[in-house]
Write a structure and sequence with these properties.
The chain is of the alpha/beta class. It has two domains: about 5-205, DHBP synthase; about 230-315, Rossmann fold. About 30% of the residues lie in helices and about 20% in strands. The chain has ten helices and 15 strands. The strands form three sheets. Strands 2, 3, 4, 5, 6, 7, 8, 10 and 11 form a nine-stranded mixed β-sheet that branches. The protein has a four-stranded parallel β-sheet with strand order 12-15-13-14, with helices on both faces. Strand 10 (about 175-180) and strand 11 form a beta hairpin. Helix 1 (about 10-15) packs across helix 5 (about 120-125). It starts with a strand and ends with a helix. The structure holds adenosine monophosphate and magnesium ion (MG). Magnesium ion binds near residues 134, 135 and 143.
């Protein structure tokens, strides 16, 4: 029985009764619950098998709702919010005491964003509370960019996936925190560093992988398919080296042929990084379903969304 439905009223009822609904956003599908319901939030961690030290992103309907959640907005955060909201940018800001500790893993800061998806916005508008909505996948697994991905993961543990079509951006949000009023990228994502720098000037990426990162999206191992995945600069020679293996290939724009390749996913024939990002997780889900010996992914160009794609692929190989 499918749990996928486009009935927003039903989603409102489930969320109001402190239960969970998977919701579409422009980044990936989220597993959503009322931020003020201890029952709902605990269920998010339980269903995802997400460790409690990994804080959640709060999703708001509009910037007017921000005051209820955060106590201080640095000038550069204001600029970024104006430039990118609604959109795929998460800001980590000082929290108000009314935000439950379980949302922030005990931190004094809270991650917030306004999603740019008509269904998510309509839902948030109908609710009297914000939604916590981490990606709707078991911890460490590939994020869902279609309702069916979520159903495959969670049909036995949640009541509803709200249908909203394929996620347009297909990569998680870019997370930015502030240290002494200055912005720092905690997680690369759907909005490129170049776009951020156009608004606030030069910006660094926080200490790439350490054991207890501020944004566990930056954990060394993350976003991994079940099939072992390798990253290479040269698809042709890598595939030749493993001629006895059944291989799935993830290529940016070009085809590769060899008898040991069972399936190839080309992310953008026109080398459009935005298109490639939007198709990345769908391609990983397809390749992973084939029970191959290995997935071989091509390294992407090191600029724009190519950096964010490489970031996810590198973590998937760990
Ligand atoms: P997900 O929603 O599954 O994409 O994960 C949310 C990401 O936001 C994780 O990488 C969290 O660590 C990060 N995050 C949430 N709250 C905070 C916070 N207060 N400080 C730093 N990172 C955060
Ligand atoms: Mg996630």
């Amino acid at each position: 029985m499918t749990i996928i439905s486009d009935n927003i009223t039903k989603a409102v009822h489930i969320l109001e009764s402190e239960d969970l609904v998977a919701i579409p956003t422009e980044t990936v599908y989220g597993l959503a619950g009322n931020i003020y319901s201890d029952k709902a939030i605990r269920k998010i961690f339980e269903v995802k098998r997400r460790p409690l030290f990994n804080p959640l992103i709060v999703h708001l309907h509009s910037i007017e709702k921000l005051d209820a959640i955060v106590s201080d907005i640095p000038p550069k955060a204001q600029l970024l919010a104006e430039a990118f909201w609604p959109g795929s940018l998460t800001l980590v800001l000082k929290k108000k005491s009314s935000v439950p500790d379980i949302i922030t893993a005990g931190k004094e800061t809270v991650a917030v964003r306004i999603p740019n998806h008509p269904v998510a916005l309509e839902l948030l508008e109908k609710l009297s509370f914000p939604l916590a909505a981490p990606s709707a996948n078991p911890f460490n697994c590939v994020s869902p960019t279609k309702a069916i991905h979520v159903e495959n993961y969670f049909k036995n543990s949640i009541r509803m996936v709200l249908e909203g079509g394929d996620c347009k951006n297909g990569l998680e949000s870019t997370i930015i925190g502030f240290e002494n009023g200055e912005p720092l990228i905690y997680r690369l994502g759907s909005i490129s560093i170049e776009e951020i720098e156009d608004v606030v000037g030069k910006i660094d990426v926080k200490n790439k992988s350490k054991d207890s990162p501020d944004a566990p999206g930056m954990l060394a191992k993350h976003y991994a398919p079940k099939t072992k995945i390798y990253l290479t600069d040269n698809l042709d020679s890598f595939v030749k080296k493993y001629e006895n293996k059944r291989i799935g290939v993830l290529s940016f724009s070009k085809s590769v042929s060899a008898s040991n390749i069972e399936q190839i996913e080309i992310l953008s024939k026109s080398e459009d990084l935005k298109e490639a990002a939007s198709k990345l997780y769908g391609a990983l889900h397809s390749l992973d379903a084939l029970n191959l010996d290995m997935i071989v992914a091509q390294r992407f160009p090191d600029y724009g969304l190519g950096k964010s794609i490489n970031d996810r692929l590198e973590r998937a190989t760990k």
